Each structure stands twice: as structure tokens, then as C-alpha cells.
Amino acid sequence: VQLVESGGGLVQPGESLRLSCAASGFTLGDYAVGWFRQAPGKEREGVARISSPGFISYAESVKGRFTISRDNAKNTLYLQMNSLKPDDTAVYYCAYTSGRGQGTQVTVSS
Questions:
Q1: How many CA atoms, within 13 angstroms, populate the side-chain half-sphere of residue 93?
Q2: How far is Cα 77 from Cα 33, in angstroms, rounded to an integer?
Q3: What is the pLDDT of residues 93-106, one digit of tens each?
Q4: With DSSP H G I counted as helix, E B as strand and the rest as coil, what are the percentages for the chain, rounded to 5?
Q5: How many C-beta atoms lie closer than 10 Å to residue 57's C-beta?
Q6: Residue 27 has what pLDDT?
Q7: Which among 53, 71, 81, 94 counts the fewest CB atoms within 10 Å?
Q8: Residues 108, 18: Cα–Cα separation, whole Å
Q9: Residues 97 and 86 sit within 8 Å (Cβ to Cβ)
Q10: Which residues touch 33 (CB under 8 Å, ≥6 apart)?
Q11: Are the CB atoms for 50 and 58 separated by under 8 Å?
């Protein structure tokens, strides 16, 4: 079982990034999966979640800016992040019930 995130990077405020999380060893669509983030000195924050049937929820801090999606054919989870802010700077992890990926760094700075 493995989750591998990619797509992080350094962007300026207002720009966009799309994170990907490739799953192997299990079927993403059979589980609730999501993204959380961890910034230095801050508590871990759940960012977005999609249930097995496809119900979606977001943290208030990212509503209207972030979009979570899942491609069952590719067994991959995505997080489209628009209008990024410096407060979005963190390591982003994808996770499900039994594990998480290694994380990808997102830095928003001018």
C-alpha cells in the first residue's frame, strides 16, 4: 500500500497549483480519502475530503479556492489549489484510513 504525492512547489500569492496523489495497493474509490496539511508551529489541518460515494467537504479556510477530485481509472487523488495565500504554505499529505503519503511542500511567497 502506497500513496505518493507530487505537484508541490514555490508560487506567488494568487497563483495556482495542482497536487496529485497516486495510490497503489488499494482502490481509492473504496475509501474516504483526503488531504491535510502541516505547517511549522501550527496544528495539522484537514483541508479536503471525499468519501467513497463522492461526498466532499472542505475546511473553511480553503472553501471556494481548493477543489478535491478523484480519478478512479488512474487511482489518483487531486487537489486543485487556486488563489493561493501565504497562509497556505505547508507540507500537504494525502491520507486514508490506513495510511498517508510522504507529503509535498507548498510554499506561497512573493
A1: 15
A2: 8
A3: 999 999 999 999 99
A4: 5, 50, 45
A5: 14
A6: 94
A7: 53
A8: 13
A9: no
A10: 21, 23, 49, 50, 70, 77, 94, 95, 96
A11: no
Nine-digit cell string for 21 = 496523489
pLDDT of residue 85: 98
Contact 31, 92 (CB under 8 A): no
Length of the chain: 110
Gyration radius from the chain CA atoms: 13
CA nearest neighbour of 66 among 43, 50, 52 = 50
The per-residue pLDDT for range 19-57, each reduced to its tens digit, is 999 999 999 999 999 999 999 999 999 999 999 999 999
